[in-house]
């Protein structure tokens, strides 16, 4: 595997970052998780847009232009002969000195890994996930805004640990007001009649790219979309529930905190959206090969 670091390719055994990189010392940096399907990078522009928004929010100057960053991602896929895969793009604050001050870091680093990902076993996509609400609440947007896809993912990791300790693969995270926010690496949706509902961004959710895609597909399918604050009660009484994310794609949820959702099996609307999603990922995106 060839890893892109600051414009050069390194073999995975020699691809190294400094122990003085503030990405490691303080989690000071940002990232994107992107997928390639069928020789195309899916929603690449949207991912790079979000990367630049995250950078702006933490006053990090991305050392490449938007266009150059898109090209670097496509080139790294080509160098690794990727047709279907997962791209992890990071921009760290770069090498500095001990002490928080980011001004000591002279040059941000760009790292691009193009590999594979399998977040959940295939059987879960068929039978659906069982998830639980966990005690760790989602970061306050006034403290560390979840819209920033930062290299500090401890909030999510703590929730993930609590989910796995509880025998589940994924956690529902509430915000400090007790409303549903999202899961540790996915946005959450419910279906109620002809309505598709998902928490608003103000509930402390990442501006999920899959979330946007699914809302567009649902509109095409004639569903009404809503973004109200949701409580656990709303989840328990939904007809269907599913999660969305670049890694997870669309995955049905069949039980939350011991309550079966709807029939307790993946719902019809969810299944239809999954089909629409795969049809879209298969035919659109930034071409890797001419
Ligand atoms: N919420 C959070 C907290 C996320 O980290 C999403 C929602 C979904 O966003 P997108 O834009 O991907 O639809 C994410 C994304 C991983 C991995 O390695 C995690 C994500 C994406 C890809 C891989 O666990 N999370």
Give a description of the structure:
This protein has eight helices and 16 strands. The chain is α+β, with helices and mostly antiparallel strands. Strands 7, 8, 9, 10, 11, 12, 13, 14 and 15 form a nine-stranded mixed sheet that branches. The chain has a seven-stranded antiparallel sheet with strand order 2-1-6-5-3-4-16. A hairpin with a 5-residue loop joins strand 8 and strand 9 (180-182). The radius of gyration is 19 Å and the shape is globular. The model has no long low-confidence stretch (mean pLDDT 97). 3-[O-phosphonopyridoxyl]--amino-benzoic acid (PXG) binds at residues 33, 156, 182, 185-187, 206, 208-211, 244-247. Residues 33, 156, 182, 185-187, 206, 208-211, 244-247 line the site of 3-[O-phosphonopyridoxyl]--amino-benzoic acid (PXG).
């Amino acid at each position: 595997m060839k890893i892109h670091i600051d414009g050069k390719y390194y073999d995975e055994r020699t691809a190294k970052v400094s122990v003085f990189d503030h990405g490691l010392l303080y989690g000071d940096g940002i990232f994107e998780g992107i997928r390639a399907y069928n020789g195309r990078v899916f929603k690449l522009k949207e991912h790079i847009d979000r990367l630049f928004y995250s950078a702006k929010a933490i006053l990090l100057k991305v050392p490449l232009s938007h266009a150059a960053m898109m090209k670097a991602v496509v080139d790294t896929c080509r160098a690794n002969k990727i047709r279907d895969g997962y791209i992890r793009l990071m921009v760290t604050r770069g090498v500095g000195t001990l002490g928080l001050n980011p001004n000591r870091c002279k040059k941000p680093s760009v790292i691009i890994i193009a590999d594979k990902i399998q977040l959940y076993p295939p059987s879960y996509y068929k039978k659906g996930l069982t998830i639980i609400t966990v005690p760790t609440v989602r970061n306050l947007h006034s403290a560390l805004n979840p819209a920033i896809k930062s290299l500090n993912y401890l909030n999510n990791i703590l929730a993930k640990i609590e989910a796995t300790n509880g025998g589940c693969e994924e956690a529902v995270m509430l915000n400090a007001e007790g409303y549903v926010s999202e899961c540790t690496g996915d946005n959450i949706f419910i279906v109620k009649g002809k309505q598709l509902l998902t928490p608003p961004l103000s509930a402390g959710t990442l501006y999920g790219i899959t979330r946007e895609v699914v809302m567009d597909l649902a509109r095409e399918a004639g569903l009404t979309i809503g973004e109200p604050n949701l409580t656990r009660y709303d989840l328990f009484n939904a007809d269907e529930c599913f999660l969305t994310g670049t890694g997870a794609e669309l995955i049905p949820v069949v039980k939350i905190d011991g309550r079966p959702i709807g029939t307790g099996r993946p719902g019809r609307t969810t299944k239809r959206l999954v089909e629409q999603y795969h049809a879209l990922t298969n035919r659109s995106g930034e071409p890797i090969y001419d």
